[in-house]
Amino acid sequence: MENKKELGDWLKKFNLDHPLVIAGPCSAETEEQVVKIAHQLKDSDVSVLRAGIWKPRTRPGNFEGVGALGLKWMQTAKEETGMLTTTEVANPNHVELALKHDVDILWIGARTTVSPFIVQEIADALKGTDKTVLVKNPVNPDLSLWLGAVERLYTADIKNLGVIHRGFSAYEKTKYRNNPEWQIAIDLQNKFPDLPLILDPSHIAGRRDLIFDLSQTALDLNYDGLMIETHYDPDNAWSDAAQQITPATLIQIMKDLKIRKEVGENEEFQNNLKNLRAKIDIADHQLLETLSKRMKISDEIGKIKKNQNVAILQTSRWNEILGKMILEGEQQGLSEEFVLKMFKAIHQESINHQKKIISE
Ligand code: PEP
Ligand code: MN
């Protein structure tokens, strides 16, 4: 699939002067809930109402969605508010029911994108329709798998496509429920600039206080839209309670976000600059995270050296690291002088850490 301009035509038809906003509850719970939330969102920047009908739960025993019944509630919400609707489909049966109930946009969830078999079945079920399909990133940080799902749909003649960045799971817990790994989405955006890219800060964050910052980063990186979980009573939501926000909070967030428009030469320069700076900020953040990880390993080494009464500084090991890193640095376009300075500083910090541990 080369970059095809038509991929984003569905989005242009919205004719928006702001990013596309998709909002609504994690799950449809009751008819009253779906319709009420739709009404609270309708006079805002939100164009599309989301609600999960079939919920993929990591472990059984949790609320698994209301099923096809909820599709009727979404139809009612659409009739009453004029908003478009979207839901997750995870198999051909879901596709059939969603089509029957006139859902406008379908999304493929993170746990489905990982399975080429199921994605192919969904693509086949959609053949011959003109639905818009949004593909969430797979749960694991694998760009090919993400692209592969988009390609399967494209090959089945689904040309109205987009992707949703919802973060990636990791064994090590961070402040995020799913790590953003912005670089993966940026790589995808560079490869397919005309494929609309939407951020789902709710599933990245897992908690509502991070949603604003994540959304602002996405807009600084020229994302095309946001999908944000919204509920009138977030704390009592039947799924993903901690990450949902009220429609009023969402409307305030949309007001506070700095939305960049693509106009004027000078402004284009400013946009590019902001975009690149956002990328630098992400890279710097990763650098610090990696350095901190390295120091923690060094602390572990300090502990075992202490047990065995071994000296901190081992010159031969250090020279070996340095030699390897200078060569590798050269291959990556970094000067010997820089690599040397940087590793000396890292090594010094490592020694300081170990000294502290040994003297404890
Ligand atoms: C959702 O959007 O409610 C959902 C289940 O998302 P994901 O597939 O990203 O986990
Ligand atoms: Mn959810």
From TrEMBL:
Taxonomy, superkingdom: Bacteria
DNA damage recorded as keyword: no
Keywords, ordered alphabetically: Coiled coil, Transferase
InterPro entries: Aldolase_TIM, Chorismate_II_sf, Class-I_DAHP_synthase, CM_dom_sf, CM_II_prokaryot, DAHP1/KDSA
Domain Chorismate mutase: 267-358
Residue ranges that the Swiss-Prot or TrEMBL entry lists as coiled coil: 259-286
SMART domains, sorted: CM_2
SUPFAM superfamilies referenced in this protein's UniProt entry, alphabetically: Aldolase, Chorismate mutase II
Enzyme Commission no: 5.4.99.5
Identification of the protein by name: chorismate mutase
Source organism per UniProt: Gillisia lutea
